[in-house]
């Protein structure tokens, strides 16, 4: 079992507080704040590392959000009326989706390359794991909240 330090306990308490007391679910800013604390604690970033790390990380997150918006509004919205799509429209949407996926992959590759220059390769791998752990924990908290409230 993973041992959590004082910072980990604080992050967990904050996380639980935001989930329990957030009306209509935790807001994006609350989640972002928790994610920052979670990643910082997991990676044990030094001040110098954090100064170099966060601008790169935040820029990457912004780019990924932009692509997700394109997917959501440009593609997924059109897929709701899948039966009405012609073969030509479906082909165009598939091409768009493939381009977006390729762009995401390119961004992710570039991000990992940059990260490995400002933090160690081991911390870069820890970042990937920390992000997955945070997502899993967030989903679990949301599911528990729905069960308790529904």
Q: How would you sum up this structure, described in words?
A:
- The chain is mainly alpha-helical and 150 residues long.
- The protein has two domains: 1-45 and 126-150, no CATH class; 46-118.
- 84% of the residues lie in helices and 0% in strands.
- It has five helices and no strands.
- The longest helix has 33 residues, at 47-79.
- Residues 6-24 have low confidence and may be disordered.
Topology of helices and strands:
Blueprint: H1 6-21, H2 28-43, H3 47-79, H4 87-118, H5 121-149
Number of domains: 2
For the biggest sheet, the summary is: none
Q: Please state roughly what percent of the residues sit in beta strands, choosing from under 5%, 5-15%, 15-25%, 25-35%, 35-45% or over 45%.
A: under 5%
- Beta-strand segment tally: 0
Chain oligomer state: single chain
What are the salient characteristics of this protein?
single chain; 150 residues; mainly alpha; 5 helices; flat
Provide a quick synopsis of the model.
Helix content is 84%, strand content 0%. The protein is mainly alpha-helical. α1 (6-21) packs antiparallel against α2 (28-43).
């Amino acid at each position: 079992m993973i041992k959590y330090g004082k910072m980990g306990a604080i992050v967990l308490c904050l996380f639980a507080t935001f989930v329990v007391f957030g009306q209509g679910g935790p807001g994006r800013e609350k989640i972002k704040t928790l994610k920052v604390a979670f990643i910082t604690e997991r990676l044990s970033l030094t001040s110098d590392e954090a100064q170099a790390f966060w601008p790169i990380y935040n820029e990457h997150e912004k780019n990924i959000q932009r692509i997700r918006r394109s997917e959501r509004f440009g593609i997924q919205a059109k897929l709701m009326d899948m039966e009405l799509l012609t073969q030509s429209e479906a082909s165009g949407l598939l091409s768009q989706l493939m381009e977006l996926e390729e762009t995401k992959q390119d961004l992710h590759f570039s991000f990992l390359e940059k990260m490995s220059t400002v933090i160690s390769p081991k911390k870069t791998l820890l970042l990937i794991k920390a992000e997955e752990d945070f997502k899993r924990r967030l989903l679990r908290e949301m599911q528990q909240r729905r069960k308790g409230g529904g």
